């Protein structure tokens, strides 16, 4: 099963934007993510609608941050993406009248709900400023400059 990596991708893009002085085009961001600029525009739309980023068209335009990273949480970004499914597994619902299916779902449902609630609580407790600080700590250890268009090293 393919995993939905949009949250990770958007966080990645936002941190690149925070490091860049001035607007970043969809093409620049796409290059940093090894994807297509159409994909970048599509996933950034929800962030723009929430006021987290701005986009300017034309020469010298592109995407810029419109908020303070210290106030933007992982949960905010997750919600801006339309709250994609957090878990790749779920309850079977093909035979709702089946007593076995009901028993299995009664056992699994609270566990899934608890796992999702834990993730959402954690997402709400982590700001992008904290991610940025972690990045800078890692960068200082590498003695490598930050270039959003660089090829990502392992």
UniProtKB/TrEMBL annotation:
<dbReference type="Pfam" id="PF02082">
    <property type="entry name" value="Rrf2"/>
</dbReference>
<dbReference type="GO" id="GO:0005829">
    <property type="term" value="C:cytosol"/>
</dbReference>
<dbReference type="InterPro" id="IPR000944">
    <property type="entry name" value="Tscrpt_reg_Rrf2"/>
</dbReference>
<protein>
    <submittedName>
        <fullName>Rrf2 family transcriptional regulator</fullName>
    </submittedName>
</protein>
<dbReference type="InterPro" id="IPR036390">
    <property type="entry name" value="WH_DNA-bd_sf"/>
</dbReference>
<dbReference type="InterPro" id="IPR036388">
    <property type="entry name" value="WH-like_DNA-bd_sf"/>
</dbReference>
<dbReference type="GO" id="GO:0003700">
    <property type="term" value="F:DNA-binding transcription factor activity"/>
</dbReference>
């Amino acid at each position: 099963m393919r995993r939905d990596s949009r949250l990770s991708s958007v966080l990645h893009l936002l941190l690149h934007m925070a490091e860049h002085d001035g607007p970043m085009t969809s093409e620049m961001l796409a290059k940093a993510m090894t994807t297509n600029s159409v994909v970048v525009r599509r996933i950034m739309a929800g962030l723009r609608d929430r006021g987290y980023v701005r986009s300017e068209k034309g020469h010298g335009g592109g995407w810029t941050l419109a908020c303070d990273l210290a106030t933007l949480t992982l949960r905010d970004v997750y919600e801006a993406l339309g709250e994609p499914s957090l878990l790749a597994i779920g309850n079977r619902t093909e035979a709702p009248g089946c007593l076995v299916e009901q028993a299995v779902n009664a056992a699994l449902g609270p566990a899934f709900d608890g796992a999702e609630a834990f993730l959402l609580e954690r997402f709400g407790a982590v700001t992008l400023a904290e991610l940025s600080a972690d990045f800078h700590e890692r960068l200082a250890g590498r003695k490598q400059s930050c270039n959003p268009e660089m090829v990502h090293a392992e």
